[in-house]
Amino acid sequence: MLRVTATTRQEAEACPVRDVLDRMGDKWSLLILCALADGKLRFMDIKRAIGDVSQRMLTQTLRHLERDGYITRTIFPTVPPRVEYELSGLGRSLLVPVKQLIGWAETHHPAIVAARDRYDSRLMTASQPVAATDPTEAQA
To answer: Residues 72, 66: contact at Cβ < 8 Å?
Structure first.
């Protein structure tokens, strides 16, 4: 059985699943790791690969990924300094389950979209006003 239950704050903070998923569950981390899957990239190359990430969020996420050991950052002493990012061994090892997750997402996305549409249709139907069946209610 997967152990994800925490009964105290200390257990929650010590939970490896929560700790790893906290980083990988954010909006940008997995996209950055995927962008770096084919090799080293500079900051703007990563930004172009992802597209809709702000410079601030990209900088913040790169720092978190570097801190956690998923990527390495190399600064070259040029003018201006050149900085390259690449996956560490830990980051490359994470690509194995990430590729499985991506494959799963691509396979099941149509079913997820259909489920969302069914759910949203039910909400719309439930929020529609009910027509009055008693003629005296309609006049009120």
So the answer is: yes
